[in-house]
Amino acid sequence: MHSSPKTITDGFRDGQGRLIVTDDQGMQYQDVLPARMFPITDPDGFLSVCDRQGRELFCIRSMADVPAQLRPILQEELNRTMFTPVIRRILRSVPFGDLVRLFITTDRGDTDITVDTEEIYRLTGDRILLKDIHGIRFLIPDWHALNSQSRRILDIYL
Predict the structure, then answer these.
(1) Measured between alpha carbons, how far is 110 from 53 in angstroms, rounded to an integer?
(2) Which domains does the chain have, with CATH numbers?
(3) Most exposed residue of 87, 91, 120, 153, measured as fewest CB within 10 angstroms of its CB?
(4) For the chain, where are the alpha helices, taking DSSP H only?
């Protein structure tokens, strides 16, 4: 189903915690799930509003088009579906073949990840995306803002 951009004009959670929204044409949609269409490159841009089976009902152009009182509810739903830790530091690396084990500090704490060196991507601006061998994406919003040790380690794999 191809959907045109719409705007959410109202919304709430029902007694069972399900999200119910009303669009700018007065249509009410029950038990919906919002999803970012471009979560890495444009996280505040187009949002897809889907039913529980994952079928898109409609999309909205921007979170800015959503009434302010609804944004926290949508943001909460979006955060549940999009897990992208932000890398703050790279402490050390251990290469082996085409893989590298990185010991990192993220916005969610310290961890280590194993990354195929082909799964390290430069995005627009100074952003870097790494995808570990389990499919989890890690974001570096500005690799120039990392400390010198982190930049030195990352530079080997870019």
Answers:
(1) 35
(2) 5-81 (2.30.270), 87-157 (no CATH)
(3) 91
(4) 71-81, 148-157
